[in-house]
Specification:
The complex is a heterodimer of chains A (282) and B (364). Chain A has one domain: MetI-like fold, CATH 1.10.3720.10. Helices cover 75% and strands 1% of the residues of chain A. Chain A contains 13 helices and 2 strands. A two-stranded antiparallel ribbon of chain A has the order 1-2. In chain A, strand 1 and strand 2 form a beta hairpin. Chain A is globular and about 75 Å long. Chain B is α+β, with helices and mostly antiparallel strands and 364 residues long. Chain B has 3 domains: 165 residues, Rossmann fold, CATH 3.40.50.300; 58 residues, no CATH class; 109 residues, OB fold (Dihydrolipoamide Acetyltransferase, E2P) (Beta Barrel), CATH 2.40.50.140. Chain B is built from 9 helices and 20 strands. Chain B has a 6-stranded mixed beta sheet with strand order 6-7-8-3-9-10, with helices on both faces. In chain B, strand 1 and strand 2 form a beta hairpin. In chain B, helix 3 packs across helix 4, helix 3 packs parallel to helix 5 and helix 4 packs across helix 5. The chains are: A mainly alpha (282), B alpha+beta (364). At the A-B interface, helix 8 and helix 9 of A face strand 6 and helix 3 of B.
């Protein structure tokens, strides 16, 4: 048994941290979302629902929100399509190359997010590596402009950045699939691909869900990639929040959007967590 | 087990074997695990592969199942090369040591798994699954999740899941080793009667010699990747071929004797023995030794050997006591004698000369 003093001592620091840096800021944000900005560019504390009604009436916000969800969905799908086969290969077939390949997947995670963003900028730009290469091969004669500053560029960049985050939980769940279940499936007359569909895939669902959640939530809240490679057509919801808290100076509206995003993400997380629990088998 | 069936089973093997293992070799990372294994298994036979851990018994089973590839030799089943068939096309099913029940499927779906993979008509599946579950007395758990089952229940599901496919050979990899002693004995009896009922060839792997003797039609004793002896339990117990077989299956006294002119002498004990002269090893089971009244070195009739010794230790064992007898010159002999009450000091013992079985002594 631990003493009360000990229990208090270990509980207080994280509790204080969460309160000061999470709960209080959220409470402030919550208050702001019901205030408004006067014509003199002053935030006035008159409680109203104006920000929320504006959010749902102004098509701009909904358009950008839907685009953010679409981009996040695309990144999630691509990250799964890239991450799952890689994780499967590593876990089941890589044998001696396993450790090396695992390191190769993990190492990019240590490189700065910004560096990777800028790298894509130099690859996709009109004077970039990709255009230079295409012209060298005489596939194109002029630089292709739509590579950079488009939702495509955002999806590409974020897929590159977040695929390892999707790979890791999938790999972990595949590593937990007992190998004798695969043998049992073969033993019962099921060929390898059916065995994958009937045993390995269902048992790796918790990892797929966790990996998809990572990619989706991280992409949904991303604002640097759209800033670097997105252009005006690649703007995402976080860019709007940033500008509302900055140049546009409309903190109340920014707070309202932030809270809506927060609710969306929390709902998503609790839904996937519940699903993960359902598919996790002890 | 059943002496009447033994000549028949021997004949079946000599005739048309269902499963024929020929000169099988297997290495792991250059280390030989199985060397020149040849073994025929008859249809409907209960064969036990018995051996210590590391003897290669599980590897042999995995080769038959198709989870490992041969490094040499062949495995044939009913006139076809089994070792070149992928595991999922072999008419062989396995009961795994750890059961390997699919955790994401109900008991019913676990048992139906193999039927769904094959061309079994859809309408037939529920009937066969229900029958298989009834056979292992698990009908009421059909819709349960495997995580809610005890080890013994999972064991039954694993058995039903394998048997429902009506394999030609059922492989069992130490299926009872995870069960406690009582359940284990009960499952041994059920397993044996189940095997008689379904008539499927069972190849059963165990390290437990008592289990092997209780269940098997024949025992294949494996030692460090080589077959030591393949025989019926009574034969392997009564006439062990090697010193290792004698010691591994049951308890024994190994007498290292010198044979001359038809008389074997091991220290103070001597008895009539056939075979060539020279150094030889004999196995004498403790229960072959009796208390005797008269003391002669060799009986006039030449069938009973007598010796004299001091009781060093007596362990009460219910019906039978275990005696440790010091025959002098540090010759220690163990005897199992129908509880005689407390004994002490010097006594006379006897045994039938034919109970001292000459064995090959391969060292170790």
């Amino acid at each position: 048994m631990y003493s009360r003093v000990y229990k208090t001592a270990v509980t207080i620091p994280p509790l204080a941290w969460v309160t000061i840096f999470l709960l209080i800021p959220y409470a402030i944000l919550f208050c702001y979302s019901f205030w408004s900005v006067s014509s003199l560019q002053v935030i006035v504390h008159n409680w109203n629902l104006q920000n929320y009604t504006q959010l749902f009436r102004n098509p701009l916000y909904l358009t950008v929100l839907l685009r953010s969800i679409r981009i996040a969905g695309a990144v999630t799908l691509l990250a799964l399509l890239l991450g799952y086969p890689l994780a499967y290969y590593l876990s089941f077939h890589a044998a001696k190359r396993k450790d090396l390949l695992y390191q190769l997947v993990i190492i990019p995670l240590w490189a700065s997010y910004l560096v990777r963003g800028y790298a894509w900028k130099t690859i996709l730009g009109s004077d970039g590596v990709l255009n230079g290469f295409l012209q060298y091969l005489h596939i194109t004669h002029r630089p292709v402009e739509f590579f950079l500053y488009s939702p495509f560029a955002v999806i590409l960049t974020l897929t590159h950045i977040y695929t390892p985050f999707t790979f890791l939980p999938i790999y972990a769940s595949l590593e937990h699939v007992p190998r004798n279940l695969v043998e049992a499936s073969h033993d019962l007359g099921t060929p390898p691909f059916s065995t994958f569909l009937r045993v390995i895939l269902p048992l790796s669902l918790p990892g797929i869900l966790a990996g998809a959640t990572f990619a989706f939530v991280l992409t949904l809240g991303d604002f640097l990639a759209p800033l670097l490679v997105g252009g005006s057509s690649g703007i995402m919801i976080s860019n709007i929040v940033v500008s509302l808290f900055g140049a546009a100076y409309n903190w109340p509206l920014g707070a309202a959007i932030s809270l809506c995003m927060l609710l969306l993400v929390v709902a998503l997380l609790s839904a996937t967590e519940r699903l993960e629990k359902r598919f996790t088998i002890s | 087990m059943n002496a009447a069936a033994s000549p028949a089973s021997a004949q079946r093997v000599a005739g048309n074997a269902l499963l024929s293992i020929r000169n099988v070799e297997k290495q792991f990372a250059g280390r030989p695990v199985l060397c020149g294994i040849s073994l025929d298994v008859a249809s409907g036979e209960f064969l036990t592969i018995l051996g210590e851990s590391g003897s290669g018994k599980t590897t042999l089973l995995r080769l038959i199942a198709g989870f490992e590839q041969l490094d040499g030799g062949e495995i044939w089943m009913a006139g076809e090369r089994l070792d070149q068939t992928p595991a999922y096309r072999r008419q062989v099913n396995t009961v795994f040591q750890s059961y390997a029940i699919f955790p994401h499927l109900s008991v019913f779906d676990n048992v139906a798994y193999g039927l769904r993979a094959k061309a079994v008509p859809r309408g037939e599946i529920p009937t066969r699954v229900t029958q298989a579950l009834a056979m292992v007395k698990m009908s009421e758990f059909a819709q349960s999740a495997p995580s809610r089952l005890s080890g013994g229940q999972q064991q039954r599901v694993a058995l039903a899941r394998a048997l429902v496919n009506r394999p030609r050979v059922l492989l069992l990899d130490e299926p009872l080793s995870a069960l406690d002693a009582n359940l284990r004995r009960q499952m041994q009896i059920e397993l044996k009667s189940l095997q008689r009922e379904v008539g499927i060839t069972f190849i059963f792997v165990t390290h437990d010699q008592e289990e092997a003797m209780a269940l098997s039609d024949r025992i294949a004793l494996l030692r460090a990747g080589r077959l030591e002896q393949v025989a019926e339990p009574r034969e392997i117990y009564g006439h062990p071929a090697t010193a290792y077989a004698a010691q591994f299956i049951g308890q024994t006294n190994l007498l290292r004797a010198e044979v001359r002119d038809g008389i074997a002498t091991a220290g103070p004990i001597s008895w009539p023995a056939n075979g060539p002269s020279g150094a030889a090893t004999f196995s004498l089971r403790p229960e072959s030794i009796r208390l005797s009244s008269a003391s002669h070195a060799v009986d006039a009739a030449g069938v009973t050997a007598h010796f004299h010794g001091r009781i060093q230790n007596q362990t009460f064992g219910g019906a039978m006591d275990l005696l440790e007898i010091d025959c002098g010159n540090s010759h220690l002999v163990r005897a199992r004698i129908s509880s005689p009450g407390p004994l002490a000091g010097p006594q006379d013992f006897e045994f039938s000369a034919s109970d001292a079985v000459r064995v090959r002594d391969g060292g170790g």
